[in-house]
Amino acid sequence: MSAPGSSEPKEPPAQVRHPAEPWRIKSVEPLRLTSPEERAAALATAGYNVGLLPAELVYIDLYTDSGTSAMSDRQWAAVMLGDESYAGSRSYYRFEAAVRDHYGYEEVIPTHQGRAAESILSRCLIRPGHHIPGNMYFTTTREHQELNGGTFHDVIVDEAHDPAADLPFKGNVDLTKLQQLIDKVGAEQIPYVSLAATVNMAGGQPISLANLAEVRELTRRHGIPVILDAARAVENAWFIKQREPGWSGRTVAEILRKICELTDGATMSAKKDSFVNIGGWLAVRDPRLAEQARNLVVVYEGLHTYGGMAGRDLEAVAQGIEESVQEDSIRTRVEQVAYLADRIAGAGVPIVRPVGGHAVCLNATGFLPYVPREQFPAQTLTCALYLDAGIRSTERGAVSAGRDPVTGENRYPPLELVRLTIPRRAYTQGHMDVVADSVIRLYERREELCSGVEFTHEPSTLRFFQSRFRPLSADPLFGPVAGGQAPQVLPDPAEIT
Q: Which residues does the record list as N6-(pyridoxal phosphate)lysine (modified residue) (predicted)?
């Protein structure tokens, strides 16, 4: 130890593995870790679809970050201020002001959640024969587009379909693809360009402001609106601040406004960035479109000043919007996801790179190389994670992609992922370590799982929510399967292409 007044250099502080959260816990919800036997029985009863499990039988729930975040004390306080007047409540005007101030759209229409906003927008703008380009599909968005007679076209950069391509903005639009679609079908057949910030199905990949500006210029020349999926636009703003030259000195709030300035409207699931358990909105600049949308909201959601939300929900959303752009809040959010990714990737587990802001996505085809695509490796891996440690994750591969509406054949997207989606402010670093340990443990045993699952029940719409499956063999991770095949003899991994 140096003597007082000594000029000897001091020891540098130890590297912090994970920075402390900018909040402390005031209320807790007990969790119970079930036994392997309980989990095996529960999963079989749920038809090997973790989405059909009772939540009380899930230990760490990473199924979604939608509506599962922890609200702050100020949000709960705002709930008590809710004005439940049917028309023109005080809470609506606070909500409207928050959206206008932080996102910049003048016409603000509340809906009960994001997919309701998607439905209203699609009913307003899409007609049979229309074509909607976007930077990769999302399940509910494409479903609404197709139900109204439209056809979705993926115009994202090719690298977004490669889980190993480590580029800073894999959510960017390929301008050549977009121009080619316009030339082919005609601008009059494109009601709008659908842009996600960030791109969920690619693992939470952001779009750059430079690319968004180029899209805006191209669409302006052709008179095509741009509609933003703003559910995780705050996370996108954070990545712009970290990765895009010229923006490091700007606040997340300023970057969020700039993103929105380059678009004509947005759909929003406030259950993501805004921390609430329910709520959403549709916002546009065109007063005529807003009037059309309000008329439909009255039919399907409720009066245009509550849109399916109680006054207390409107208050919670307004407060959540303000909290979402706080620098410490979004930094902690993204760094928790990065911590989990680093632990998993450090053990050699194949994941999507770069890591997004809301989830770590496991590359299921690389994780389970012996499970054929037609046996749904991502769905299989979600089951294995639950059986191993009671962790619920989400399949984002062929099951989520559904069937081609024309041919009826399964769609097999390039990305076959298992999404470990982190609710905001809900789990600790200890929970992340439990998840990482389970993923690594399964990866070390991956050769024991050489076959997947098949459908026993398949809904026609958004099948991943309510489908049921059965395992195709008695692999050690699944246990005995009545009527199943014997485990397959594994080929040499070098022979697998």
A: 272
